Amino acid sequence: MSIEKLIKEYTEKRETSKRLFKRAKRVIPGGISHNIRYFPPYPFYVKKAKGAKIWDVDGNEYVDLWMGHYAHILGHSPEIIVNKIKNEIEGRIHWGLVNEYEVELAEILCEILPSAEKVRFCCSGTEATMYAVRLARAFTGKNLILKAEGGWHGGGTDLCVGIHKPYEESESSGLVPEIKKYTRTIPFNETEKAVRIIRENTRELAGIIVEPVAGAAFIPAELEFLKVLREETKKWGALLIFDEVITGFRIALGGAQKKFGITPDLSTLGKILGGGIGIGAVAGRKDIMDLCDPTKKGEKWVLTGGGTFSCNPLSMFTALTIIKYLKENEEKIYPQLDKKGKRVRESLENIFKESKIPVKCTGCGSLFKINFPFQRGVSLKNPHDVDYLTDTDKRDKEFRLRMIIKGVHIYRGGGALSTAHTSEDIKKIISCSKEAIGEMERSNIM
């Protein structure tokens, strides 16, 4: 099936979404309020979601792998969350005052997260990384933040550099030119090059922020790479920050830091922590976190407002509910998720061996992505390799559209599995991927 026929089939079964998108473009720039939610020819509009499935306004059903930006580890609207909220929601929407739930949630996070001696809550992962960078600069008295190439840490100004190739550029107009002076990049999983850059900047280095599993490609950091970052930051008086907004509570209850055995100075959290409600958190060493204590204002005091809706009782209660559930069921949930992820990745790799189109699967735990290298046999060890050695347009446009038409909703070639994904769902993901690759092979020949 040609791309033209593909688009025609998509639009014929999504007329209501087409009308909604046309309306949206009149009043919302680009028709969307989060850039990654757009894909050509236009996104479908969701009407409801439950478990591993979503349904659009035209009645089409999909096995969902986007899972609310990877936030739903138990699936959409899990009973454990929904039933609890139903019983607690009245009178607990938003107080703007302290509540008992935030205390209990902070206590349990300090118990399960290796880096957490104290926690500060906010409203999103973007806010969390913004505050983590601010804390690092204040604590060290230095200004430079190094981040891994291709790392996404939210839309905050300080880290809006080096997200997409060629990486040297800032990602937006409207940013002060000095941002490139104070935020620079290191290559992910390239230890020698990273060390060279670190040692060229030791006098001004405040900290290094890195995703332990690169979200842009779901490629886990090599243990040696993380060990060296830990050693170098300690050696030069800088802080190591793990952005665990995706990996926190997903690849292990204690996050990637628990799984890999590397403890950072600060960690940023979000997504799964909220149980489907907006949330963010910074956790870390007591001596660093105390810089934002308003009762101890010193010359290094750090402003962390948290936002109007930070620690609202609904988000705190929901977060407490899911974290308690994950903790109580840890020995069942995480091996189950790892098994599902391994099954998908291994099955796809076996399928791709027979493909005429070069295909490579990356992933970790319950996360996976399908990539289309320009040549066979390439190694994908970081976002740089994915951006320069693979056809991201083929992945994000053609392959995505083919999968959506078949009833599987993916993002960047894959997504996140949940406890709600059944064996039948996984079979469908694998079989639809095989069909889509086959169609792409035939389309290329034609």
Helix/sheet category: alpha/beta
Question: Please, how many helices?
Answer: 16
Helicity level, as a percent range? Answer: 40-55%
Mean pLDDT: 95
| End-to-end C-alpha gap | 9 Å
What strand order characterises the main sheet?
A: 4-12-11-10-7-5-6
Q: Assign the CATH architecture of one domain.
A: 3-Layer(aba) Sandwich
CA radius of gyration is 22 Å
Defining key terms:
alpha/beta; 7-stranded mixed sheet; Aspartate Aminotransferase, domain 2; 4-stranded mixed sheet; 16 helices; about 15% strand; about 450 residues
What do you see in this structure?
The protein has 446 residues and is an alpha/beta fold. It has a domain at 79-328: Type I PLP-dependent aspartate aminotransferase-like (Major domain) (Aspartate Aminotransferase, domain 2, 3-Layer(aba) Sandwich). The chain is 42% helix and 15% strand. The protein contains 16 helices and 16 strands. Helix 7 links the parallel strand 5 and strand 6. Helix 5 (100-112) packs parallel to helix 12 (313-328), helix 8 (191-200) packs parallel to helix 9 and helix 15 (392-405) packs across helix 16 (423-445). The longest helix is centred in the last third of the chain and has 24 residues, at 330-353.
